Structures are given as structure tokens and as C-alpha cells.
Amino acid sequence: MTDAPPIMRRKIGRHVVETCARPDGTVLLRTPEIYPVNARDWHGPYSDMDAALADFTTRTAIPKITRKRLAYLRRHGFAGDVCGREMISHLDPWTGATTLSEYELVKDLENA
Predict the structure, then answer these.
(1) Which residues pair with 91 in a beta bridge?
(2) CB–CB of 55/64 below 8 Å?
(3) What is the rounded CA–CA span in Å between residue 66 and residue 4?
(4) pTM for this structure?
(5) Rg of the chain's alpha carbons, rounded to an integer?
(6) Rounded to whole angstroms, what are the CA distances from 48 to 18, 24, 58, 111?
(7) Residue pLDDT, tens place only, 11-62
(8) d(CA 48, CA 69)
(9) What is the Cα–Cα distance from 104 to 101, expressed in whole angstroms?
(10) Which are the contacts of 70, defined by CB distance < 8 A and separation ≥ 6?
(11) Which residues are paired to 30 by β-bridges?
């Protein structure tokens, strides 16, 4: 038997997340079922559980883009219809892999 800290498992959005609170109060976080497989490593240490979950939530959120950016992505072949859904190709901040994703349109603050 080891004195390893317990691992807490939960679902956040569409991802299974495991967190581990270390004896010094810091927290490690990983996504054991995510692809690509090399993205399953532990991330952190984070200062506390809230910081770990906030970082994960932020980095895995649906990308927010402006209409101008969407037009650029379409012109260059990085946006289009995939099985009836508009998707964009982008670099996933959590896994580091290029992936297809839905997106959220936001107002362009320059022209507001």
C-alpha cells in the first residue's frame, strides 16, 4: 500500500477529468480518456482545485470567433460544413492537436 494522494474522477463537459490533491495543497489534473493519447499526461501543479478546474474549462471551451475571423477561415479552407454542421479547424489548447470544433460567434469590438 502506498501513501499516494487519492484521485477524484468527474465529468466536465464532454471530458472525464481526474484530479489529485497533493500533500502540499497543489493539484494535478489529467484527462485519461482524451485523444490523442499523449494528451493524457498530468497537468499542473495548480495552486488549488479551483485554479485547476478553471484552467481546464477555459482551455477546452468552444472557440469564440468574430465574423471577420470566420470569413478568413472559410477563405483559407479552415471552416466549412461537416455532416451538416459548420466547423472550424484549430489548434486545441489542451491537447496541442489540430482538431475540428464547433464555434461561437462574438461581436467584433473594433467595429462596434
Answers:
(1) 98
(2) no
(3) 46
(4) 0.81
(5) 18
(6) 14, 10, 16, 39
(7) 998 899 999 999 999 999 999 999 889 889 999 999 999 999 999 999 999 9
(8) 35
(9) 10
(10) 79, 88, 103, 105
(11) 18
